[in-house]
Description:
Strand order of the largest sheet of chain A: 1-5-6-7
Strand content of chain A: 15-25%
Structural class of chain A: alpha/beta
Oligomer: homodimer
Largest interface: A-B, 19 and 19 residues
Radius of gyration of chain A: 19 Å
Helix content of chain A: 25-40%
Amino acid sequence: MKMKTLPYRDGFKMAADFDEKQAGYMLWPQRPDNWRDGGKPAQRAFTQLASKLSKYQPMTMLVNENQYKNARSMLPVSVRVVELSSNDAFVKDIGPIYLQSTDGQQVRAVDFNFNAWGGLVDGLYFPWDKDNEVAKKLSELDSINYYESTLTLEGCSVVTDGDGTLLTTEDVILSEGRNKGLTKEVATEQLKETLGVNKIIWLSEGFYLDETGGDIDNMVSFIAPGEIVLSWTEDKSDPQYVSSHRAFEVLKQETDARGRHFRIHKLQIPTPLFLSKEEANGVDPINGRLPRIAGQRLTATYTSYVTTNRAIVLPEFGVAQDEIALEQMKKYYPDREVESIPAREFLTGGGGLHTVVLNVPGV
Amino acid sequence: MKMKTLPYRDGFKMAADFDEKQAGYMLWPQRPDNWRDGGKPAQRAFTQLASKLSKYQPMTMLVNENQYKNARSMLPVSVRVVELSSNDAFVKDIGPIYLQSTDGQQVRAVDFNFNAWGGLVDGLYFPWDKDNEVAKKLSELDSINYYESTLTLEGCSVVTDGDGTLLTTEDVILSEGRNKGLTKEVATEQLKETLGVNKIIWLSEGFYLDETGGDIDNMVSFIAPGEIVLSWTEDKSDPQYVSSHRAFEVLKQETDARGRHFRIHKLQIPTPLFLSKEEANGVDPINGRLPRIAGQRLTATYTSYVTTNRAIVLPEFGVAQDEIALEQMKKYYPDREVESIPAREFLTGGGGLHTVVLNVPGV
Lengths: 363, 363
């Protein structure tokens, strides 16, 4: 049911990734103008991730009707398959942002406007009409009451400590393709009252060449209130160097909603990875042009991981840094299993592990 | 998850209509070659029924993606709307048949083959591919384990007392369009082991001119073990006279699985109702021919009602008999509310109230 009130006043706040979760959702990849080779390699990768996550929490794969039987045949029985139409597969961006009551007992959702990361200005596909219904449909499927917001944003464009603080990027929230004419001041107020937070910290930009326009989840992740990991590189020749260091300077000086300084863990990104010619050529052209080009850089970072109650699932890129990141994360999450999974196929479709899993808070 | 065993041996039996239910499902009507005027009058009627039932149990309307927004806007918030594709709207026929464990604590389902009441021989439409997936999809949606059967039958072709007895009709189960070559003896054994019953009582036919070929639910309904209502007429000029009286003779002589004789309540059908020219002309032609003809008789009977834990919903046909049937049913169900609802639109699409609601047993 749609709420006519405001989350902040109702005592609801955005749930953090590390908060307790009751279930997880994914969307099934299929569009051949985004996923190479008719989506088959991505479908295998999504199957592997959903299978792994289903060891830790109930998992549901949401699929378009025409892919139901294929998805059901590829996925293990531990993953539930449910029809729910969408235009693409980035459920954390497309689906609702979940809120919790202060006592953690109630869950609500927010349905923001979604326009494929920039609509007709610089969005990634058209139409996005089915995506834009996913938040409402999913709330209804779980009988979760939801708020509607007029802001255009995707779930991965905001991260929270679950304790009053929200991090986001100007490049996304204030982009012409999403919220043309919106000022930072008005956006700050709207984010506060809609996501139930007290303080917004703005970074200017996200990860280098992120095709979302710079969603924050490739840059920063909260481990706990006051404690974050930050995508990092010491290589001055890497264009990512500037935005990582700029973010560090902002976060080092800022305090959170409770007045705490952040403990920042630098999480070294892998050596740059590039799309191969074979990968680029496996994608259907749009209006005669390939949407992806051989040699384009992939937005590879370990910061895009999945958090469940008992485990963390990190991306593997097939480089030496994988092992270092894994060991590092084990220290940050001493109470959870830390596992990893090959993630390249998620990246070839423009996403990361964090973007393709939507967890519902609650016991 | 699909079970590889047999319900009978696993201690599961088909739930009766009067058994306790946890929730109800309906499918949204939309096909213009079955429902007049683009389905709009039927959609209003389904909305009215779902609204009424939602007073007594959680109700979910299952809809094709292209009708989601329309259904959501027409239905009250008390009815959940969930995407689930189908070819038409008779969910009790199309969906699973639910089973319960002997202690009533566990629910399972059976997925029979469905071919639109007779496939290419005498079925009502083609294709029926989406309908045939509904039982599996709905079981999966509710995380209910299911059995598969090779028999072709629809949910309304069998009624049970929940106590070992099953009633069905030869015209349906043994029809060429459904189970060509199947003998009564083999069918009897298969029904026993698949629906967990000990005794099958066969009627030769169902209701006069029922376009399903004669599903039993328009003829007979169990009020309790050993106690049934039977569609009845004393009018010898009515072609229904023969089948009602033939059914009475069979049921009078038979005993149920526990050796009880049946207490049979004769439920007088309304005076014959016929499709109007306007109603017939509102349906899209199939291959150039109207699927329904002005003046054709509607399968109107009060036996096609809906049972919930706390209420019975009877059809109203706008005739004097409506009130008599209502009073009669109040006596048979002294512990439940007995309400009624205009039912003509359901009949113009070939169904009745009992065919459009699927209740899930359980607490």
